[in-house]
Amino acid sequence: MPVETPNMDVTTLKALAEPNRLAIIELLRESPLTVGEISHQIKLSQPHTSKHLKVLSDCGIVKVLAKANRRYYKLRPEPFQSLESWIKSFQGIMEERFDNLDRLLKELKNEGEF
Amino acid sequence: MPVETPNMDVTTLKALAEPNRLAIIELLRESPLTVGEISHQIKLSQPHTSKHLKVLSDCGIVKVLAKANRRYYKLRPEPFQSLESWIKSFQGIMEERFDNLDRLLKELKNEGEF
DNA sequence: ACGGTATATAACTTTCAAGTAATATTCGAA
DNA sequence: TTCGAATATTACTTGAAAGTTATATACCGT
């Protein structure tokens, strides 16, 4: 059977690929925070912050805990884990590829010279 | 001194966060390929393919090798490595955070009940 | 019940990247 | 030295996500 390669979810990558959201994620490393706290720290309007949090929430990067009229956002490990296993699936391949490229270049060189 | 946390390059994430480019990367796992081969396999126009390859090239995800009028594109390990070390920097934090959240919830509960 | 606070949502504008079409460049071969 | 193939680049159109403003909802304390 063919080797399983984890296929990475583009939605997760899209969510990560935005400076403000990345900043939010870095903030949430420390501890769960409310929208107001996040909004204040990264100097974004409250609606804007909520919008980014929704993107992060929709793809499972964060989860929310309601307490009174506050919402605590915290990181969820799952997306990070799948990203890690995807990235890891490239280990070993690069080096092998280097050999292959080496071979390829030699082939091409011969092709050119004979 | 404060603990060093690798700060992830948004440009790299942006480059990864697009389905066609992700497909190109998956293709290049196997071996270096020319623009024509890539273009054919993922059914994209040649200019479109070149454009995506430029994005990947600009952020160092691929490198190009010219041979005659062909360009061989291959993956470069560096961006994958830095992505991996960024992702790894989240390991251990999640679990600790869970404890913290647990504490936080208890605090909040007490706050509410007393 | 009322007022203030925290957050979400909807409607809108703006910005930027994806996608397309046409043209330029470079190379090998006849 | 011309021709076709491979690729890059430029100019353009389009669509989606970022950012903004205004409003709605829910909760607590009084």
From TrEMBL, chains A, B:
<dbReference type="Pfam" id="PF01022">
    <property type="entry name" value="HTH_5"/>
</dbReference>
<dbReference type="InterPro" id="IPR036390">
    <property type="entry name" value="WH_DNA-bd_sf"/>
</dbReference>
<feature type="domain" description="HTH arsR-type">
    <location>
        <begin position="1"/>
        <end position="95"/>
    </location>
</feature>
<protein>
    <submittedName>
        <fullName>DNA-binding transcriptional ArsR family regulator</fullName>
    </submittedName>
</protein>
<keyword id="KW-0238">DNA-binding</keyword>
<keyword id="KW-0805">Transcription regulation</keyword>
<dbReference type="InterPro" id="IPR011991">
    <property type="entry name" value="ArsR-like_HTH"/>
</dbReference>
<keyword id="KW-0804">Transcription</keyword>
<dbReference type="GO" id="GO:0003677">
    <property type="term" value="F:DNA binding"/>
</dbReference>
<dbReference type="InterPro" id="IPR001845">
    <property type="entry name" value="HTH_ArsR_DNA-bd_dom"/>
</dbReference>
<dbReference type="InterPro" id="IPR036388">
    <property type="entry name" value="WH-like_DNA-bd_sf"/>
</dbReference>
<dbReference type="InterPro" id="IPR051081">
    <property type="entry name" value="HTH_MetalResp_TranReg"/>
</dbReference>
